[in-house]
């Protein structure tokens, strides 16, 4: 049995679908099973990181995501997993290496240390920027052809959640991945201006970017009910730091692990056209 946490989210939902598609028994953890909308073959259980112990009976492998910006729960969560399971695949973050002093870098680093010290067989995933972050523009794109934002020139190696999930599934279900950190990126580095144009191509609409100052972007995000206020400054600090640094280094890890090249952002935009 494989326990998937974050099973209703960007990556976890894909992990569930791919595991079920390959015939593996899957248990999905969610805080609200009534809204999970997962395939019938999945055992959906109510739980969260604080109550994870109750979801772990008979589980051999765990896909763990960390939806927090602190590691407060890390010791308890990892100890609970260790009591039941043998293997863990952790959706971590490249911020551990690239932005070690950020909240995301610090919390994931501490979590990784707990996992490494646990005695579990582990694989850490270090994904680049999720293509799914473009969904943050959904409201703007639904209401017009202009996307207003900051740091339009910032290049990101947008990574399709299906590719992250495909690597996770290999690490959960086959040997040879233990003790490995996989640095995962999309196949190309694209500015935010280019991302908006590509989404426009997928929608058949002339979308264009309108640049905001950092302060204007901060105000815009704080006023956006769908974006967590607590993450605004961390995000903008991260963007500022990335803009000052070198462009993202691309890897072939998705293809090396799965045998299939990483999907393009254009492919992601086509897959998600209905979401906009
Ligand atoms: N976005 C990026 O560019 C990026 C890049 C590198 C790494 N990462 C890392 O990827 C992870 C996020 O992955 P994701 O986008 O797949 O996750 P997600 O879609 O944001 O969330 C996954 C699920 O976690 C549960 N959840 C959300 N907030 C929670 C909370 N406060 N307490 C308990 N459960 C909560 C929700 O499930 P239920 O409501 O069903 O319980 C949600 O569907 C983070 O650790 C992030 O640091 C992200």
UniProtKB/TrEMBL annotation:
Gene3D superfamilies reported for this sequence: NAD(P)-binding Rossmann-like Domain, UDP-galactose 4-epimerase, domain 1
Domain of life: Bacteria
SUPFAM superfamilies: NAD(P)-binding Rossmann-fold domains
Residue span, NAD(P)-binding domain: 6-174
InterPro entries on file: Ergot_Alk_Oxidoreductase (IPR051604), NAD(P)-bd_dom (IPR016040), NAD(P)-bd_dom_sf (IPR036291)
One protein family per Pfam: NAD_binding_10
Signal peptide: none
Protein name per its UniProtKB record: NAD(P)H-binding protein
């Amino acid at each position: 049995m494989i326990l998937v946490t974050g099973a209703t989210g960007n990556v976890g939902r894909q992990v569930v679908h791919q595991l079920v598609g390959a015939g593996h028994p899957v248990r999905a953890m969610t805080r609200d099973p009534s809204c999970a909308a997962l395939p019938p073959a999945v055992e959906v259980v109510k739980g969260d990181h604080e109550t994870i112990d109750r979801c772990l009976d008979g589980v051999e492998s765990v896909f763990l995501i960390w939806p927090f910006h602190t590691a407060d729960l890390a010791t308890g969560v990892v100890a609970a997993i260790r009591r039941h399971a043998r293997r863990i695949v952790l959706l971590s973050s490249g911020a551990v290496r690239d932005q070690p002093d950020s909240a995301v870098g610090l919390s994931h680093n501490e979590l990784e240390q707990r996992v490494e010290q646990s005695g579990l067989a582990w694989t850490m995933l270090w994904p680049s920027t999720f293509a799914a972050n473009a969904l943050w523009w959904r409201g703007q794109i639904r209401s017009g052809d202009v996307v207003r934002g900051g740091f339009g020139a910032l290049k990101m190696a947008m990574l399709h959640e299906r590719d992250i999930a495909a690597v996770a599934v290999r690490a959960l279900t086959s040997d040879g991945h233990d003790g490995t950190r996989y640095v995962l990126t999309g196949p190309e580095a694209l500015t935010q201006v280019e991302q908006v144009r590509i989404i426009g191509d997928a929608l058949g609409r002339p979308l264009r970017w309108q640049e905001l100052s950092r302060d204007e972007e901060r105000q815009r995000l704080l006023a956006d009910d769908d974006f967590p206020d607590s993450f605004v400054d961390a995000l903008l600090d991260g963007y500022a730091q990335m803009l000052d640094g070198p462009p993202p280094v691309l890897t072939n890890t998705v293809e090396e692990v799965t045998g299939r090249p990483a999907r393009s952002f254009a492919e992601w935009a086509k897959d998600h056209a209905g979401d906009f």
